[in-house]
Amino acid sequence: MKEKIAIENLVKKFGDNTVLNDITTSIKEGEVICVIGPSGSGKSTFLRCLNRLEEATSGQIIIDGEHLTDKKTDINQIRQHIGMVFQHFNLFPHLSVLENITLAPLDVKGKNKKETEERADELLQTVGLSDKKNVYPESLSGGQKQRVAIARALAMNPDIMLFDEPTSALDPEMVGDVLQVMKKLADQGMTMVIVTHEMGFAKEVANRIMFIDDGYFLEDGKPDEVFNHPKNERTKDFLDKVL
Ligand code: ADP
Ligand code: MG
Fold this sequence. Notes:
The protein is an alpha/beta fold. It contains nine helices and ten strands. Strands 6-7-8-3-9-10 form a six-stranded mixed sheet, sandwiched between helices. It has a four-stranded antiparallel sheet with strand order 2-1-4-5, covered by helices on one side. Bound molecules: adenosine-5'-diphosphate and magnesium ion (MG). It comes from Tetragenococcus halophilus subsp. halophilus. Keywords: ATP-binding, Nucleotide-binding, Transport.
């Protein structure tokens, strides 16, 4: 498989605080990576560096051969290929579900309204919310909101999806539906980087697990390797607490 994202010696500092420490790794097309680790270890910062919501302090991030860290790079162009889903959905409250989904393709891509709405219908079907098309976010449950947020990200036809703890804010009974949508995407070959505490999902769906602690990637391997034969004591401690 072709390399999709190359990360070379990535360092991110906030003032004196080094949050990502010399990270080098490569993500192939269609890979599903789960990033796990304690709170404050740098998971969100890592994800945000991948679409330049945070500027790397040094190092390189190369997506489809384009240097993200290069000032000349048109970041908006690259971001159109990268969907992001956050813990707190961030839907537009004054827009209906359909309008939330069609806003960016109509606005940013200048697409045809009819085609965009047809695509939104397809996406609502994919996430199991066809009947919610005309309602407003306030009438949705957390799990439904998150599935709309996923549909909205997919409406730009991204080829990379980043998820930052997409189920952490949900009531337990809502988690399964969201994970199921993510699994469907993974099965369709989407390249995905997912920060999650859902270890069952990570074991089942991820091709690779990265364990980050204090800004260092201490493990980067197949789920079986990381969960059953971790190399590092810190990983063992973490897994003992969460499994
Ligand atoms: P995680 O997602 O693993 O919980 P984060 O990436 O959010 O961790 O944070 C890692 C570290 O970076 C923490 O010490 C946090 O306080 C710090 N940090 C994150 N964002 C900022 C910011 N915008 N300014 C300053 N410090 C930040
Ligand atoms: Mg975080």
